[in-house]
Amino acid sequence: MSSKRGSPRDVAVIVGSLRRGSFNRRVAQAVKEIAKPGLALDLIEIGQLPLYNQDSDDDPPGIYEAFRKRIRAADALLFVTPEYNRSVPGVLKNAIDVGSRPYGQNVWNAKPGAVISVSVGAIGGFGANHHLRQTLAYLNVPALPNPELYIGNAASLFDGEGRLTNDKTLELLHKFVDAFAAWIDKLAPVAA
Q: What distance in Å separates the CA atoms of residue 98 and residue 140, rounded to the nearest whole number?
């Protein structure tokens, strides 16, 4: 779906962590706060989605339909994910599966996307970031190629209120948001 001229781009933000104090959710919130006026970021909850089961394709749960409708309406996608066992968390993979089924009804299709991985480790979720990019390529989600963003040592980047306070990380996020906005403009048409 394309935004109307002058309307902010609707960016669905999918956070791959359910933890209450999630560093990934904190980074997603920081991105939302620094986003350009032309971007409207909306954090989409995925923890309530039942595990995908093909048996439900003929009579999907209402929660599946609401999620699919929301993603279908978005102009672009931002994924913010931790790394579990060199991959994405199961809850994120489940949301991707729910949105890509039934076969031929992929709600992710052709939406510009971007990936941020966040980890308490030094390499910033590199494995999850690239694993997710492989999945997005299959789903025909053109993911922002550069800058790639891996945020490591996440436990040291926030204050006691959960606000991102590390200046270098904030600078990286600003550059990332600028590049993502340009990527969306390049790939997603604006309706007259």
A: 15
Instruction: List residues bridging with 76 in a β-sheet.
Output: 11
For the chain, which domains are there?
A: 9-187 (3.40.50.360)
The alpha carbons of the chain give a radius of gyration, in whole angstroms, of 16
What torsion, rounded to 10 degrees, do the Cα atoms 117, 118, 123, 128 define? -40
Token digits of residue 128: 């999850």
Q: What is the pLDDT of residues 136-148, one digit of tens each?
A: 999 999 999 999 9
Q: What is the pLDDT of residues 36-84, one digit of tens each?
A: 899 999 999 999 999 999 999 999 999 999 999 999 999 999 999 999 9
Tell me, what DSSP letter sits at residue 155?
A: G
Task: Find tokens 């959960």 and name the residue.
Answer: 162
Three-state SS at 29:
helix
CA distances from 155 to 5, 22, 181 (A): 40, 10, 28
